[in-house]
Amino acid sequence: MPKFEFERGKMVPAPSHSIMPERDIDSTPVLEALHLGIDFGGLRALDDFNITVGKTEICGLIGPNGAGKTTVFNLLTKVYAPTRGTILLNGQDTSGKTVFQANRMGIARTFQNIRLFNTMTVEENVKIGLHNTKAYSTAAGILRLPSYWKREAEAHERAMELLSIFDMQDLAAHQAGSLPYGAQRRLEIVRALATNPSLLLLDEPAAGMNPSETVELMENIVKIRDTFNIAIMLIEHDMNLVMNICEGICVLNFGKIIAKGTPEQIQQNDAVIEAYLGKQKEA
Questions:
Q1: What residues does 31 pair with on adjacent strands?
Q2: What Å distances lie between residue 29 and 54, 84, 119, 198, CA to CA?
Q3: DSSP string covering 156-217, please?
Q4: Has residue 37 got a pLDDT over 60?
Q5: Residues 146-204: pLDDT tens digits?
Q6: Which 3-state string (H, E, C) describes 46-89?
Q7: Please, which residues bridge with residue 33 across strands?
Q8: What distance in Å separates the CA atoms of residue 110 and residue 181, rounded to the nearest whole number?
Q9: Alpha carbon 40 to its chain's center
Q10: DSSP 3-state of 243
Q11: What is the pLDDT of residue 275?
C-alpha cells in the first residue's frame, strides 16, 4: 500500500471543554453541537451529543454500525430536526432552518450511497452545486439575456476549476452515471465544494476504494482543506484513513459519545476497544 504522510496540527483545550487545532483556537468554531439529541418514537437515537470543530480542522466521527453517525450528519444538515440541543454554525444558531438554508449558511455533505444526477454530465452536476452564487433573474434565464450568458460562462469556468482538483476536467462532458465508482465519489465531493461550504461532511468517502485510491483520497482531503481553508468532518470505517488524517476524533456507540480525543488517545481508550472488539472474558 502506498505510504501517506500528513503532519497533524497540535490539539489544545478549547473554551467549550473540547479540543481543537492550536491554529484555530482564536477563531470562532465552524461547528458547535450542544447537548444534541433526537428521539424516534420511543427510541432515543442520539443523546447529549457535544462536539466542537475548529475552523480548519479535519475530524472524524467513528463508531460501530448503528451507532448514530449518519443521524448526526442528518441533524447537522437539517434533514432531521433535533428533539433536544443546539447547533451553531460559525456561531449562528441553525434552529428552524431548512436543508437549503443550512447549506447557504455554510454546511455541505456527501452521502454514504452516492447521489448524483446520473443522466446529466459531470459539469452539469457541479453547476447544480453552484446555485448559491446564482446571479441572474428568472427572466434573464428564460430570455437568454446577456446576464445569463455571462453567468453561464462564469459557472463553466468555476466548474472546470473545481473538477481540476481531482484531475477530472477532461471528464466534464461525460455522463455522471457512466463514471467508475471512485470517480463518482470524487464528483460528489466536487459538487459539495461548489456550494462554497465552510464545513464539509463526508459520509464514508473511502467506501469501495482500493488502498491506492484511499491514499489518493487522503491526499485530496488535505488538499481541499488547505486550498479552501475549510473544516472537514468525516464518517469512516477505514481506521487507517481515520488515524492518519484526522486531528480530533469523536466515537459514538448506541447514540452516545464514549470517547473524544486525538488519534493516539482514541487508539488507547478501553471503551473504544470494547465497542469495536467486544469485552474480553476473564480467564
A1: 53, 89
A2: 5, 21, 38, 10
A3: HHHHHHHHGGGT-GGGTTSBGGGS-HHHHHHHHHHHHHTT--SEEEEESTTTT--HHHHHHH
A4: yes
A5: 666 678 788 899 999 999 988 999 999 999 999 998 899 999 999 999 999 999 999 99
A6: EEEEEEEECCCCEEEEECCCCCCHHHHHHHHCCCCCCCEEEEEE
A7: 51, 87
A8: 14
A9: 24
A10: helix
A11: 85
C-alpha cell at 154: 462564469
Give the C-alpha separation, 270 to 241, whole Å. Answer: 21
- Is the pLDDT at 260 greater than 50? The verdict is yes
Confidence of residue 18 (pLDDT cuts 50, 70, 90): confident
Can you give 132-145 as a three-state secondary structure string?
Answer: HHCCCCHHHHHHCC
* pLDDT of 46 over the 80 cut: yes
> Is residue 56 scored above 70 in pLDDT?
yes
Which grid cell is 236? 469512516
C-beta atoms surrounding 213 within 10 Å: 18
Contact call for residues 223 and 164 (beta carbons, < 8 A): no
- The confidence score (pLDDT) of residue 283 equals 44
Amino acid sitting at position 191: R
Give the residues across from 234 on adjacent strands.
60, 202
Name the helix (H) or strand (E) containing 244.
Answer: helix 239-245
Q: Which helix (H) or strand (E) holds 251?
A: strand 248-253
List the grid coordinates of 63.
463508531
d(C-alpha 172, C-alpha 198), whole Å: 25
Give CA–CA dist 199/16, Å, rounded: 19
Query: What value does the mean pLDDT take over residues 230-256?
Result: 95
- Which region among 50-54, 114-118, 149-153 has the lowest average model confidence (pLDDT)? 149-153
Q: Please state, in angstroms and rounded to a whole number, the distance separating the CA atoms of residues 72 and 64.
A: 14
- pTM of the entire predicted model: 0.87
